[in-house]
Write a sequence for this structure.
């Protein structure tokens, strides 16, 4: 049985992860409008990954015998000044999500809910990757600033493919 606090925070995390998908889809739409289809593809794959994150929390709440309660998804921002601006926002958003996961972990540890601690461990590791990906693209965008390198980067990012995880 989940405590009231963990139940409510895990439900909120479903919203956070779906909002992440929505935000990245908004960024994909922005990149399509800027004719940067590789960046758009990267964001579309990222959005799909976020939905799998939401589903992990969804499944976990059900496994623990509770009923999921879905809430309204906030409208994301739709305009960015540049590819760098969008990826800086994505990086900042991932740092926010890392903060959320750490917050959930703090609660699970305080409540001695070891099943939730184990479940959250996957997300702790995942967030290291999520931040590293976004931050490395931010750095590359800074390097190619003002050059044609952005088209090369667009081609590279367009190779990203969605792979369904087994766990
Ligand atoms: Fe689900 Fe990008 O964190």
């Amino acid at each position: 049985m989940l405590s009231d606090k963990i139940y409510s925070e895990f439900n909120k995390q479903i919203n956070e992860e779906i909002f992440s998908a929505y935000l990245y889809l908004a960024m994909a739409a922005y990149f399509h409008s800027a004719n940067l289809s590789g960046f758009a593809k990267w964001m579309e794959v990222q959005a799909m990954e976020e939905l799998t994150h939401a589903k992990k929390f969804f499944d976990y709440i059900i496994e623990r015998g509770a009923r999921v309660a879905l809430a309204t998804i906030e409208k994301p921002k739709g305009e960015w000044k540049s590819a760098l601006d969008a990826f800086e926002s994505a990086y900042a958003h991932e740092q926010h999500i890392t903060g959320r996961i750490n917050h959930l972990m703090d609660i699970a540890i305080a409540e001695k809910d070891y099943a939730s601690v184990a479940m959250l461990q996957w997300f702790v590791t995942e967030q290291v990757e999520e931040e590293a990906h976004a931050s490395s693209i931010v750095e590359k965008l800074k390097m190619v600033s003002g050059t044609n390198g952005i088209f090369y980067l667009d081609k590279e990012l367009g190779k990203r493919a969605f792979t369904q995880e087994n766990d």
About this structure: The chain has one domain: 4-159. The CA atoms of residues 42 and 157 lie 6 Å apart. The chain has a mean pLDDT of 96. Residues 114-144 form the longest helix (31 residues).
